[in-house]
Specification:
Number of domains of chain A: 2
Strand order of the largest sheet of chain A: 1-3-2
Mean pLDDT of chain A: 86
Largest interface: A-B, 31 and 31 residues
Structural class of chain A: mainly alpha
Distance between the termini of chain A: 34 Å
Radius of gyration of chain A: 19 Å
CATH superfamily of the largest domain in chain A: GntR ligand-binding domain-like
Oligomer: homodimer
Strand content of chain A: under 5%
Number of helices of chain A: 10
Order of helices and strands of chain A: HHEHHEEHHHHHH
DNA sequence: GCATCGTATGGTGTATACAAGACCCAGCGC
DNA sequence: GCGCTGGGTCTTGTATACACCATACGATGC
């Protein structure tokens, strides 16, 4: 193991992890309130680390805090989703262009290839939970390949919020997404920035439209007016 | 005034504002420690709101927290600065492209023109403090013109961190920056996305190289090895 | 019956207290 | 002299306590 000290993380971080997870896997529904006291008691800690964890998660956009009114899990509107995806596209394009132009460390390339293989296998086997995780890792590694730390960080923050869109949703048509991943990687390997940009734009817009379709389909089936409703059967992967 | 309730912000936010300001105006030097207890006593509050304020400011990248070791004001290396500027360029280009393509609300255009006029006047008069503030406002308004909330937010966060670079620095050659601002606005008014992109890239890379020069010059004059040294006589505006 | 005002309750905001970790330095042994 | 060890101090981590705000609901007046 690494040093013991480094492994001992403060409670606020453990609480933040737990809170994030509960939000992303839908245990805390969008629009639902987060009560400091209740969460604290549930986790067996005092309110202080919970409050600090809330500030962390707030800065990631997963919850919204109104002073003296409390905390609710963020609800991402269609418009906000569109905005987030647009920002993500801009950043991811910048990342792959940079990666293609200046080359990527072999270790990162190998890692990407490994994730790609795992992802294709998981897609074929229909392991959607795993696929979602692999998808996040692929894009994270892609950002890392740019060698730009600020880019990695910014994209990770966006990814977190976008994940909210897929909460409780199954992930369909994942095979297509993984083909696109493969082509992006090919373009980077070839050092062709324009090609990489084109593939990335295609991937993101494809994922966005897949998401839109699913969202519309879910809105038909479920009650569309209830903002806190958990969309079932919807979801796509970018 | 608006409602009284909305105006009453919690202490953590007031403390966060104060902390930000102290960092950005150099009262807290880069690399310097931030002691919770001391800050709390100085501001006449308890440690709790201070701790929460620190989480806020941490999420903005202005301070770095090491568990059980404490808080230090972030030091931005040349490489990190480069990375941040690159991300900013990507986002700002996306913003002006979108603004040019889909048009900007007249109110925002007027606001931009007003800031531009004020900025030009301030540049001529040599009011550098004011100029820095106007510069931030111009870019903020520019982002708002894109109509993409996520973009506004992301750029604001970057701007905060970049401001660290200019801490305690005078702002030279500001006139040039404001000419560039004017051309960006012209391009958006004309609805020419390619032109707007070109002007924005020129502006940011121009500002970056002005900054680099100043940094190099400052490193010659001052002790280059001391990370916490406050560079004097350096600074540029983007 | 309806509007309005108390009042109870649930919740957040802030302060204080204590525990535990990290760091510094003196003193000791080798 | 040099490294190690011990305590002391400074600082952060966590818990508890209380005050204040927001809201819901019932009582009271008309």
């Amino acid at each position: 193991m690494k040093t013991l000290g480094a492994a001992h993380r403060p409670l606020r971080e453990l609480v933040a992890d737990e809170l994030r997870q509960r939000i992303l896997d839908g245990r805390l529904p969008q629009g639902g309130r987060v009560i400091e006291d209740r969460l604290a008691e549930e986790l067996g800690v005092s309110r202080n680390p919970v409050r600090e964890a809330i500030r962390l998660v707030e800065s990631e956009g997963l919850v919204e805090v109104t002073p003296r009114r409390g905390v609710v899990v963020s609800v991402i509107s269609a418009e906000e989703a569109h905005d987030l995806i647009e920002v993500r596209a801009a950043l991811e394009v910048a990342a792959v262009r940079r990666a293609a132009n200046q080359g990527v460390a072999p270790a990162v390339l190998e890692e990407l290839a490994a994730i790609l293989a795992e992802g294709a296998a998981a897609a074929a086997a229909g392991q959607f939970e795993r696929l979602s995780m692999l998808n996040t890792r692929f894009h994270d590694e892609l950002a890392r390949g740019s060698g730009n730390g600020a880019l990695v960080e910014a994209l990770r923050s966006l990814q977190n919020r976008l994940q909210l869109l897929f909460t409780a949703g199954v992930h369909r048509r994942s095979g297509k997404a993984w083909e696109e991943h493969g082509r992006i990687l090919d373009a980077i390997r070839a050092g062709d920035a324009d090609w990489a940009e084109a593939e990335t734009r295609a991937h993101i817009s494809g994922a966005a439209s897949r998401y839109e379709n699913n969202r519309a389909a879910a809105a038909d089936g479920a009650a569309p007016s209830d903002a806190a409703a958990t969309p079932d059967g919807a979801g796509a992967q970018a």
